[in-house]
């Protein structure tokens, strides 16, 4: 992958970068948050670390911004459970007690591949730990593909600078346990 090309286009879009992370910084982030970066995003973060507002700065482990990005996933699903009658059939009967319902939902989310924040409410799953995992846009249970992989995501999010059509998902898209059910309207 041509990292220079993608970094240059993102810089044109106003993204600021710091020097890339080293192996020990990558390992520290993975250990702290209990996930493994897929190879493509790991390689990109080691090439250059986006540090503009909204981007996940992996050098700031334990920061409220990163904690909030992980919490966003749970809070959005909890909101839809409480306010929009959301409940998956696979989870069994929905408890009348809201905290019990949240507990079941948390367990199911925790069993799914972990979503790693990129920027805002855009995430890449940690499993499978391979190149070309899709990028998801997560807003409550409105979870859609925002790129068939990291590069397609950059092209979609910053389409003006890549001279591409807005929101063009390249095929094929790898199916990700749990999360793709939302994106593919299988729930």
Task: Give the structure's gist in a few sentences.
The chain is α+β, with helices and mostly antiparallel strands.
Tell me about this structure:
This protein has one domain. The strands form two sheets. A four-stranded antiparallel sheet has the order 3-4-5-6. A two-stranded antiparallel sheet has the order 1-2. Helix 4 packs across helix 5. Strand 3 and strand 4 form a beta hairpin. It is globular and about 50 Å long. With 187 residues, it is an alpha+beta fold.
SSE diagram, text form:
Layout: H1 3-12, E1 17-19, H2 23-33, H3 39-47, E2 48-50, H4 64-83, H5 98-111, E3 115-119, E4 122-125, E5 135-139, E6 142-147, H6 150-157, H7 159-162, H8 179-183
Antiparallel strand pairs: 1-2, 3-4, 4-5, 5-6
Helix pairs in contact: 4-5
Q: What is the domain tally? A: 1
Oligomer status: single chain
Strand elements, count: 6
SSE pattern = HEHHEHHEEEEHHH
Rg: 17 Å
Amino- and carboxy-terminal Cα gap? 35 Å
| Number of DSSP helical runs | 8
Helix content: 40-55%
Instruction: Strand order, main sheet: write it out.
Output: 3-4-5-6
Point out poorly predicted stretches. none
Strand content: 5-15%
Mean pLDDT: 96
Structural class: alpha+beta
Q: Name the shape in a single word.
A: globular
Largest sheet: 4 strands, antiparallel
